[in-house]
Design goal:
With 240 residues, this protein is mainly α. The chain starts with a helix and ends with a helix. The chain contains twelve helices and no strands. Helix 3 crosses helix 6, helix 7 packs across helix 11 and helix 11 crosses helix 12. The protein has one domain: Butyryl-CoA Dehydrogenase, subunit A, domain 3 (Up-down Bundle), CATH 1.20.140. The chain is 64% helix and 0% strand.
């Protein structure tokens, strides 16, 4: 029986490369470089004295080293969660603006986990907004926007596994199958299998007990393996 490990060994590169995730369009530069360049332009202060209580030049350098260095991972998580490149870029940009504003009070620790936590929180803020727009009539308020943790925004532009295979090969199929999982399963799979975070780090990022993280990861692996088997069976039938 195939497992996620059986599937992911076919990943020739990490899914954070835009060439592999953004509808088959090849980028002019790597994701990390493109995202960092945009963030440096829109978020980071210019060199020199920082007026108005902003970051000092030394703090700005630390921000680049400790937080901005993980723009690739931040974009990867945002894209796999929202499944839309334009929304992912906005989520990451907003997350970094927020991180920049709070960095003066940052007392050390894992910069990657910190920015991934902010990105994840921004995604669920966005998801709540989409849920309210989709399900709450105008003029009514909802007291339970988080009632269904498996609720997700329909992805009308999502490739089928067959379309993904034709465009991007087996890595594209895996991305398409992961994108069909509920958000709570997608996030643990991305954080564990792609970003290689520990259970404790994932628990901190998702504000969930380690036991819940392990349970969700098990469910995600089983669901992905089952979806992969179904895809391979369908492909085999199409060949015969």
């Amino acid at each position: 029986m195939p497992t996620v490990a059986d599937c992911t060994h076919r990943w020739s590169v990490r899914s954070s490369s835009r060439a592999k995730v953004s509808h088959g369009a090849a980028p002019a530069a790597s994701t990390e470089t493109a995202v960092e360049d945009r963030l440096e332009t829109s978020a980071l202060p210019p060199p020199g004295p920082s007026p108005g209580g902003g970051l000092t030049p030394d703090q700005a350098r630390r921000f680049r080293d400790v937080v901005l260095a993980h723009a690739d991972a931040a974009y990867n998580l945002a894209l796999r969660l929202c499944r839309r490149a334009d929304v992912a870029e906005d989520l990451v940009n907003d997350a970094y603006v927020r991180a920049l504003g709070a960095f003066a009070d940052f007392r050390g620790g894992d910069g990657r986990s910190w920015i991934l936590t902010i990105v994840r929180n921004r995604f669920y803020d966005w998801l709540r907004e989409q849920k309210l727009k989709a399900t709450v009539p105008l003029g009514r308020a909802s007291d339970d926007v988080d009632g269904d943790e498996d609720w997700d925004v329909p992805d009308v532009e999502q490739d089928t596994p067959e379309q993904a295979l034709a465009k991007k090969g087996e890595a594209g199929v895996l991305h398409a199958l992961i994108d069909r999982l509920p958000p709570r399963l997608r996030e643990v799979l991305v954080l564990r299998e792609m970003e290689e975070l520990s259970y404790r780090e994932i628990a901190e990022i998702t504000s969930a007990p380690i036991g819940s993280v392990m349970s969700r990861l098990s469910r995600a692996r089983e669901a992905l393996a089952e979806a992969w088997r179904a895809h391979e069976t369908k492909a085999q039938e199409a060949r015969t």
